[in-house]
Every structure is written in structure tokens, then in C-alpha cells.
């Protein structure tokens, strides 16, 4: 079956990553669009809650998945995007060495004009796994165009995030710049979207993020007041990649 003719597809490693990282950009792009949660599948029946899900207050893995799927549906509706969930359980409930099911097949079915937004993979192994598999599947120059988005709130911790110096700072940052340096070593990158949200755009993005309420307290434990205004989520960065993975190493310009 051929996928619908989406103009933009966002690969969201987990429920909430698309809203956190690119909700503002989605509001500026022409539709139709889809948000694909790669780790969107149900956990094994009867699985106890992972450390993350238990920290979010869930008694079982199944309860967490049901709630998050409903939260994601509300967020996608606010972002004007179709909701898709691939059959991979969240990483605590699956074999981490196995390829991500359904991802290659989805990308092969997309129209060549589709814009595919892939996570940069900053400081999160699930994000990096989605990036690596997706970019390998998008290597065909005749296929959809690959873009890479900065994973928020991780990259938003960099000094001067949301300014013209953000890319330069991220490139050299020892804590958060590794994924950008790694990607830039394999692909030519150029900043395609440097989004700085106005008050109305921020209100719309915040509404989509708040839909994922089951995770917000746990995220704040690791990232502090990430929803503050002004704050890190009001700036989004997306790079366009050349298709060839054999281009010389290139440090993206600020």
C-alpha cells in the first residue's frame, strides 16, 4: 500500500519528541504532514513499568503506552499532523540490537518530494538509532530529501541557543555537540530552518507539548525549567543534508 502524499514526515523517536523539537516549524510548513513515532509499539503483555514509566507514575508498561498513544493523538491534532506509530516498543521493552521495524518500509513508500525530518541524535541512544537507520534508508538521491532536526530540550542547553551563534556553539560544545559533529563528518549540512517562535507560535507549541503531560515532570528532572519563557524550546534548528554519505567532512556554518 502506498503512503499518503505527505509533504513533511517527522520521525519522532518517542511520543513527545516531535512536539518538543519541531512543533513550531510544522506550524509554518504547508501540509499535509505526519508524525511517525518510531518507538510507538505496545510493550510485551504484562511487562512491569520501566524506571522511566514508573517515575512518571505508571503501574504497568501497558498503561503507560495506552496513555501516551492518546496524548500523542491530541498533540498531533493540534499540530495538524497525521499520527502514525511504528510497532517498536520503547527501548526498555525491546531488543536494542534489532533493526527498527517498519521504518525502512515507510521511507521506501514515501513520494520523492517528501521532506523527512530525522532527529540529530543528541545524547540519546534511541534518537541516534533512528537517525542512523533513517539516513541509511534515505541515501538514494532519487528518494525523499533528508533533513535533521536538533533534539530539544537537549540542544537547548547550549549557551546562546536561539541566537545566530547557536550552530557554532553547538558544534564545539563538549556535552551536547557530539551528534552534530558526527553527522557533519558524514554529510554536508546546511541550516534550512532557523525558527524563532513569536508569542502566538509559542502558545501553539506549548499546547501541543502539554498534551504529553505524563512525561513533563520526568523531563523537568533532567532538564530543569525547559518550558520557561523565554527559553530553549522557542528556538528550533533544522539542517538539510546532501544525499551522499561519502562527501568530505564539513563543519556546518553558523
Could you walk me through the main structural features you see in this protein, from its secondary elements to its overall organization?
- It contains nine helices and seven strands; from the N terminus they run βαβααβαβαβααβααβ.
- The protein has helices at 17-28, 51-55, 61-79, 103-109, 125-137, 166-172, 178-186, 199-210, 213-223; strands at 8-12, 33-37, 81-85, 115-119, 145-149, 189-196, 235-241.
- Strand 4 (115-119), helix 5 and strand 5 form a beta-alpha-beta unit.
- Helix 1 packs antiparallel against helix 8 and helix 3 (61-79) packs antiparallel against helix 8 (199-210).
Q: What is the secondary structure topology, with strand pairs?
A:
Elements (H helix, E strand, L loop, with lengths): L7 E5 L4 H12 L4 E5 L13 H5 L5 H19 L1 E5 L17 H7 L5 E5 L5 H13 L7 E5 L16 H7 L5 H9 L2 E8 L2 H12 L2 H11 L11 E7 L13
Parallel strand pairs: 1-2, 1-4, 2-3, 4-5
Antiparallel strand pairs: 5-7, 6-7
Helix pairs in contact: 1-8, 3-8
> Could you tell me the radius of gyration in angstroms?
17 Å
Number of strands: 7
Helical content stands at 25-40%
- The rough form would be described as globular
Strand percentage lies at 15-25%
Strand count, sense and closure of the main sheet?
A: 7 strands, mixed
What distinguishing features does this structure have?
254 residues; alpha/beta; 7-stranded mixed sheet; 9 helices; 37% helix; globular
In a few lines, what is going on in this structure?
This protein has 254 residues and is of the alpha/beta class. Helix content is 37%, strand content 16%.
